[in-house]
Specification:
With 417 residues, the chain is mostly beta strands. The protein contains 3 helices and 27 strands. It folds into 2 domains: 6-22 and 33-50 and 71-102 and 198-413, no CATH class; 109-192, Elongation Factor Tu (Ef-tu), domain 3. 39% of the residues are buried. Pfam families: Phage_tube_2 (PF18906). This is Phage tail protein.
Length: 417
C-alpha cells in the first residue's frame, strides 16, 4: 500500500470564466472550470479541507446512549501558505481586492509626452521637461522602468515612485536613487507587470478551483467554486517573506484513475526568486525607515457560506468589507515619531517594496495611503535593543494629493501577467 508523500503532491488552480454561483446547483466539473489550462501553485503548506457540520440527537433514551448523528451542511475552507515571490500570488491578490488589475501605463510614455528626462542621484529624482506624469496616469507606489536613456545604469532598473513635486508634477521621486544624468530627449518609460487596488465600485466576483494531486497515489482532491476570502503577508527582519491565502468554497470531489489529475496541462509554477527582507525599502509617513524589525499585513472579508434547506452545499460564498489591518515592530529610538502619531491619533502613510534580488530584479510594492496606529506597546526586556509593537488599521483614502488613488491599498507586481 503506497503512502502519500508531501513532495509528491502537486497543487494547481484555475479561475472559472464566470464568477457567479448558481444558488441551487453546483457547477459541473465536466465543463467548468475545464480541465485544460490552470497553473501550478507554489506552496509551503496547505490546510484546505472539506468541512461538514454535524447534528447529534438530543433524544433521551432508556439505553442512555446517543443513537443518531447526521452530517448537515458542508463547505470547503482553509489556508494555503508559501514564500512570497513576484508573480506567484498576484492572481489571488487581485481576486481578494475584487479588482480588474492592469498596467498603470498600458502603452508607456516617451519623450513625445514628457519632452525630456533628467536624473539627480542626490535628490533621488527624475525631472521631466514637459507634460504631467500624474495626468498621464502615473501613481505613487507604482514601479517604473526606463529604456534607451543615455545613462545605462538607469535602464532596466525597477524604480519605486515615492512622490511627485515641481511644476505639473514633473519631479518624480524614486527609490533606488538613479544615476545622475543630463536631460535626455529619447527614452521610453513603462510600468512592468500589473497594479491592483481595492476599488470603490465595480467590484468583480471571482471563483476558482484548486486541485491537490498525489502522484504517488494517483488520486486528486478537487476543491470547487472557491472564493478568495483574504490574504496575509509577513515580512521578517531577516529571512524570507511569506504569504498566506484563505479561501472558502462549496465542495470537494475525489478523482482517481483516468480522471486524475483533473488539470491535464497546467502551466508551470513561477520561477521568480523569493523576496528577502534585506532587499527593498520601507517608508512610513513619507520617510525611509531603518528601524522596523517586522511587518505583517492582513486583508480579511468576513466570508459567509450560509446553510439552507434542501441542499448540503451553500447557495453562495458571500464576501464582506475588505478589512485591512496589520502591525509592525520597531526599535525604540530618540525621534519618538511613532509614539507621537499614536498619541495624537495622526494618520500616516505606509509604502514598501520587496524585491527578488538587485535593482533590475522583479519586485512587488504595497502602498497604504492612510493608516491609523492603534498602539505602541513598549515592553522593556533584556539588556540590548528595545522594541515596540504597533498595530494599525488601514483606511480608504479620501484626499486629493498628486498621484494618489481613492483606495485602502495598492499592490504593484512587476511579474504579474
Amino acid at each position: 500500500m503506497p503512502l502519500a508523500e508531501g513532495s509528491a503532491a502537486r497543487f494547481a488552480y484555475k479561475f472559472y470564466a464566470d464568477g457567479t454561483m448558481v444558488t441551487n446547483a453546483e457547477a459541473d466539473i465536466a465543463t467548468a472550470p475545464g480541465s485544460s489550462g490552470g497553473r501550478i501553485l507554489r506552496r509551503v503548506s496547505a490546510g484546505l479541507n472539506l468541512r461538514k457540520n454535524a447534528t447529534r440527537s438530543a433524544e433521551i433514551l432508556p439505553s442512555r446512549q446517543v443513537r443518531s448523528s447526521r452530517h448537515t451542511s458542508r463547505r470547503v475552507e482553509g489556508p494555503l501558505d508559501g514564500e512570497f515571490s513576484p508573480g506567484s500570488y498576484f492572481d489571488f491578490i487581485e481576486a481578494a481586492h475584487r479588482d480588474s488589475a492592469a498596467p498603470i501605463l498600458p502603452s508607456g510614455l516617451t519623450e513625445v509626452q514628457l519632452t525630456s528626462a533628467a536624473a539627480d542621484s542626490a535628490t533621488s529624482k527624475f525631472n521631466f521637461g514637459g507634460g504631467d506624469p500624474v495626468a498621464l496616469g502615473l501613481r505613487k507606489g507604482t514601479i517604473i522602468q526606463f529604456a534607451s536613456l543615455s545613462a545605462a545604469g538607469n535602464n532596466g532598473v525597477r524604480f519605486l515612485v515615492t512622490g511627485f513635486g515641481g511644476t505639473s508634477n514633473r519631479e518624480v521621486s524614486v527609490f533606488p536613487a538613479p544615476t545622475t544624468m543630463a536631460a535626455d530627449t529619447a527614452f521610453t518609460l513603462t510600468t512592468p507587470g500589473k497594479s491592483s487596488i481595492i476599488p470603490a465600485s465595480g467590484h468583480v466576483r471571482r471563483k476558482l478551483a484548486i486541485e491537490r494531486y498525489h502522484e504517488d497515489l494517483d488520486r486528486a482532491r478537487l476543491y470547487t467554486e472557491l472564493r478568495v476570502t483574504g490574504y496575509r503577508l509577513a515580512v521578517p527582519a531577516e529571512g524570507n517573506s511569506t504569504f498566506g491565502l484563505n479561501v472558502m468554497g462549496r465542495n470537494r470531489r475525489t478523482l482517481t484513475g483516468a480522471a486524475a489529475p483533473y488539470f491535464t496541462s497546467p502551466a508551470a509554477a513561477t520561477t521568480t526568486e523569493v523576496c528577502n527582507s534585506l532587499n527593498g525599502i520601507l517608508r512610513i509617513a513619507g520617510s525611509t525607515v531603518g528601524t522596523v524589525t517586522g511587518l505583517n499585513l492582513n486583508l480579511a472579508m468576513a466570508a459567509d457560506a450560509p446553510a439552507v434547506l434542501g441542499q448540503a452545499f451553500p447557495p453562495d460564498v458571500l464576501l464582506g468589507t475588505a478589512d485591512v489591518t496589520g502591525d509592525f515592530t520597531a526599535l525604540v529610538d530618540d525621534t519618538d515619531a511613532i509614539s507621537a502619531a499614536f498619541e495624537e491619533e495622526l494618520e500616516v502613510e505606509l509604502l514598501f517594496m520587496l524585491t527578488a534580488g538587485g535593482a533590475t530584479a522583479d519586485a512587488v510594492a504595497f502602498h497604504l495611503p492612510r493608516l491609523k496606529l492603534n498602539g505602541d506597546e513598549e515592553n522593556v526586556q533584556g539588556e540590548g535593543s528595545q522594541t515596540m509593537n504597533v498595530p494599525f488599521q488601514a483606511l480608504e483614502y479620501l484626499g486629493s494629493a498628486a498621484g494618489m488613488t481613492g483606495t485602502t491599498l495598492r499592490c504593484t507586481d512587476t511579474a504579474a501577467t
